[in-house]
Amino acid sequence: MTKTNKLPAKRGVISNYQLFFIFLVSRAVVALTFYQAILIGGVSPDSLISSFIALFLNLLLCVPSFLCVKYSKNPLQTKLGRALYLLYFVFYASINISRYAFFACDKTLHSQSPLLFIIVMAAAASYASYLGIEALGRFSVLCAVTSIGVLIIIIFLNFKNFRPINFMPFFDNSQKDILLNSLIFSSNSIEGALYLKLSDRCSEKSAKPLFFGIIASYAAIALMILFCVGVLGKAAKLFSFPIYTLFQLTAFKSFSRLDIIYSAFGFFALFSKCSLLIYCAKEVLPGVKNGAKPVLLTALCTLFSLLIYRRFYSEIANGA
After folding, report:
1. Contacts by 263-267, CB closer than 8 A, 24 or more apart
2. What is the DSSP secondary-structure string of 256-302?
């Protein structure tokens, strides 16, 4: 009887496909809480052009991170780099928490105070980050696969409502406005920073998951914009969250108001993204015991989220 020796599995390591889905969720979740008032002219057919330009900009922004990792010049290897990226990760986690708090208060909580939501979200994301990158990688795959499945179902159910005439005229905005909208689409681009931290957690070469994850996420965003315009037409500009409205109008036989699915999966995807950001912040946080890091990061995220909410969203939520 022969005895086979198995190599022990590596701890704290994720696969290529898990890293791909992490970047896919990281970018695509922005569209789930997309507030169209920040766009010049709102959602229009030429928003598709803006999204493709934004894809190109996003890929360019990731090139420096790719080169830093390739030539072993990672800024996270320096004390100053770790301090700056600690603030960066916490700040962007807070931006996403405050954005979803605004969406939740506007659409589901009916203008209630976002304080409890922000505290719970920050605490839950900090706890999830403590579970490690393996758990976060598996959860990101789950979020991405289920979200893609829901998106395919919504598109299938809206084929009968799609009207090509809604794309006429195609150009609603000037060339300058199209370019400015592409800058707005490419904002909140954190993939380069995530790559600096997660590249050494990948069991294989990590460049392809980075770039293909971004391309796939923009394809999903373009698909959502395509059906928002094709189904809602000019009326898309009348709604604060047009993608959410598309889900509200979707029905299948006796099932209507599928926006609850949108809200649920949007929350899970956002939770995954924020947990990953806080995990990266935890990993670069110096001089603090591991047990105290979740408490400190929860406090920082709660504070930053409330400040961002009060500065950018409170007046809109109160109807000012």
Report:
1. 263/104, 263/107, 263/108, 265/32, 265/143, 265/146, 265/147, 265/150, 266/29, 266/32, 266/33, 266/100, 266/103, 267/100
2. --THHHHHHHHHHHHHHHHHHHHHHHHHH--SS-TTTHHHHHHHHHH
Query: Which of 28, 31, 51, 59 lies closest to 182 in space, CA to CA?
Result: 51
Give the CA-trace dihedral at 94, 98, 99, 102, to 10 degrees. Answer: 180
Tell me the C-alpha distance between 220 and 84, whole Å.
31
Task: Give the integer Cα–Cα distance in Å for 43 and 172.
Answer: 10
Backbone angles phi, psi at 252, to 5 degrees: -135, 105
pLDDT tens across the length of the chain (320 residues):
444 443 334 667 888 889 999 998 888 777 666 666 677 877 888 989 999 999 999 999 999 999 999 898 989 988 899 999 999 999 999 988 888 888 777 666 555 677 888 888 888 888 888 888 999 999 989 888 888 888 888 888 888 888 999 898 888 888 899 999 888 888 878 899 999 999 888 877 788 899 999 999 899 888 888 988 899 888 888 777 888 788 777 766 666 666 677 777 778 888 888 999 999 999 888 777 777 888 888 899 999 998 988 887 766 555 54
Give 100: exposed, middle or buried? Use CB within 10 Å, 0-12, 13-18, 19+: buried
Q: Are 205 and 78 in contact (CB under 8 A)?
A: no
